[in-house]
Amino acid sequence: MSSILHTKKIALVDCNSFYVSCERLFNPKIRRKPVVVLSNNDGCIISRSNEAKALGIKMGEPYFKEKDIIIKNKVEVFSSNYSLYGDLSRRVMRTLKRFNTKIEVYSIDEAFLDLSNFPDQDIEKVGKEIRDTVLQWTGIPTSIGIAKTKTLSKIANHIAKKKQSGVTSLINIENIDPILEKIHINDVWGVGRQLTKFYNKNGIYNAKQLKNKSNSWIKKSSNVLSSRTAMELKGIPCINLETTTTKRKSCVVSRSFGKRVERFQELKEAVANYCLNASEKIRSESLVAKAITVFVRTSPFQRNYGYYSNAKKVDFPIATNNSIEIVKVAVTILETIFKNGYQYQKAGVMLTGLSNANEKTNLFSSEKDEKINSLMKSIDSTNHRYGRSTLSVASAGVQKKWNMKREYSSKIDTADFYSLPMIRA
DNA sequence: TCTGGGGTCCTAGGACCC
DNA sequence: TCTGGGGTCCTAGGACCC
Fold first, then answer.
1. Is A188 in a helix, a strand, or coil?
2. How far is the CA of A330 from the C1' of C2 (A)?
């Protein structure tokens, strides 16, 4: 006997121009103006208001290339403020959880929500209610796409973005082929630059064509991921909702420098700082790392200066999250990959093979380990209370000449943010 | 002058084993 | 000249995502 069949209904809720919307919350004067938010180091444009999009400012474009348009049109420019965006993101996600606990927080500004428990005929109305509630409680405008699979809900969302209501459902539409036909293949979730090239070569230019391609051909000439995408276009769910937060497998901290760096000493300071951030992060999640990779490189855009890029991975004797040990190993790696005479533009560290700290199968765990653990704990809580890098290690340096550029920060402090009232009507 | 950062998964190929 | 065959495990690199 089959249980009562509900149509599977997945919503993709996506915050509109998220970083710009966050800045606008605290700055009503820029509500109707063109606004952009820049990546770290004020390098690229990573969020644009509709007004900025209308001016032809492209996503991911280097800031300096768009500077003329920006000045001419008095576009408001902001350096990114990730702690602010993170706080607002959590608030949006909390609001979404009130509608259904079956939620996958997919990125800082997106979540998949299982709405199968609502009747098919009400689904568009439910979508609108979610949108209104998020807007009212957090001030963040969203777009919502609803369909039978994640891949289709992405497409529905794509359409919703251009609609006044901000909500699109494909649930009650008998034949969605005419809709899929209008979706360019490169706008399909999971199809990037390389796959687009490959599909085009094989006469596939839109989502409908991919949907109708035989599964065996796709699997044979591409891979399982591509065949999953095609199945999902057919309305057969192949990509599950990941509702439980699984522990991460790696942790990367890397930055481009505000200025080019040539001296070993400065590179060392930068790498030591990245190690401190990374180890603090994995400690906060009770993880230990099996290995560390350190990498350095010069700018790939200025090859005439001589390009150099190198990386090296080293296993720790015992999986660890000890800052001091991690910095020590990182510095020895840096010594082996550093070469004089180059203008370094970026460096980073990657902690890999992460596992639970308490599952340590370490026969040699000792009193000394206990001492280190409690030292790390007190460093973390002090830094949490008084600001990052209150307590540090000597090699991390104090001058930080290489530090990021952030000329246009709105300087909104999340401490202030928490004191703001939450509006419920 | 100035080009982000942080993830995951898959696959091919090498090392190693019997 | 001819130099097995098949399995597992690991890693680096590629492709994709936001």
1. coil
2. 51
Q: Which CATH number fits domain A174-243: 1.10.150.20, 3.40.50.970, 3.40.630.30, 2.60.120.1520?
A: 1.10.150.20
CA A356 / C1′ B14 distance in Å: 30
Task: Phi first, then psi: give them for residue A24, nearest 5 degrees.
Answer: -65, -30
Residues ≥6 apart with Cβ < 8 Å to A264: A334, A335, A338, A340
Query: For residue A38, which nucleotide's C1' is closest to its Cα?
Result: B4
CA-CA-CA-CA dihedral for A215, A221, A227, A231, to nearest 10: -30
Amino acid identity, residue A406? R
The lowest-confidence range among A5-19, A177-191, A242-256, A364-378 is A364-378
pTM summary value: 0.92
CA–C1' A361–C18 (A): 36
A309-321 per-position pLDDT tens digit: 999 999 999 999 9
Superfamily of A250-396 according to CATH: DNA polymerase, Y-family, little finger domain (3.30.1490.100)
Distance, angstroms, CA A33 to C1' B7? 33
Q: What class, spelled out in words, does domain A1-173 have in CATH? A: alpha beta
Nucleotides of C under 7 A from a protein CB: 12, 14-18
Q: Is the CB of A219 under 7 A from strand B?
A: no
